[in-house]
Amino acid sequence: MDSENKALAETGSGRIEGAEEFRSLLVGAQQGDQKALARLKAQFGDHPAFWTRFGGDVARRAEDALADRMAGDALLTREAVRVQMAQMRAQLAGPISTPLEQLLIDRVVLCAFQLLHAETSYAERLEEGMSEQEVRYFERRVDGMNKRYLAAVRALATVRKLQLPTVQVNVAEKQINIAQG
């Protein structure tokens, strides 16, 4: 058993013996075996790292699907898109971000890359030549993606603004409220 599977198998209660049993339970649970899923749940409970590793991070799955669609069969391009998404997420998160901010950051990143994909598809199709109807379709698609992106950015900015502390300063009889940001 490799060290990663061993570490996973040793967490929780009701120890799973060996890599083969672990793999068998994973395959069984993936194929709908309720008993296999129950054993995994008993073993790993609410350990987020386990569930995230096996498909529980839906935002990353959506990003991966988009990266696959953007890159097609180009493995290097696919990885470059994933790295860019991770960099954007890290830049937006900064040193500290709340769980709500993390959800909104995931949304901003996904919308940004959906918009880029829509823009790229539109540009590529323009070079090939399109009918008036196709041009209108792509323009509506890009406009819709842009609206979703801007809404996600606005939501993140609003949440961050609401979190800023308001400082109250009393000078003689006057009260002055100063909001930072």
Q: SSE string, helix = H, strand = E?
A: HHHHHHHHEE
Number of helices: 8
Shape: flat
Total beta-strand segments: 2
What's the oligomerization state? single chain
Structural class call reads: mainly alpha
Strand order of the largest sheet: 1-2
Task: Walk me through what this model shows.
The protein folds into two domains: 54 residues, no CATH class; 109 residues, no CATH class. Helix 5 crosses helix 6, helix 6 packs antiparallel against helix 7 and helix 7 packs antiparallel against helix 8. The protein is 75% helix and 7% strand. It is mainly alpha-helical and 181 residues long. The N terminus is likely disordered. It has a two-stranded antiparallel ribbon. The protein starts with a helix and ends with a strand. The protein is flat and about 75 Å long. The longest helix has 32 residues. The protein contains eight helices and two strands.
Concise synopsis of the structure shown:
It contains 8 helices and 2 strands; from the N terminus they run ααααααααββ. By secondary structure, it is mainly alpha-helical.
List keywords for this structure.
181 residues; mainly alpha; 2 domains; two-stranded antiparallel sheet; 2 strands; flat
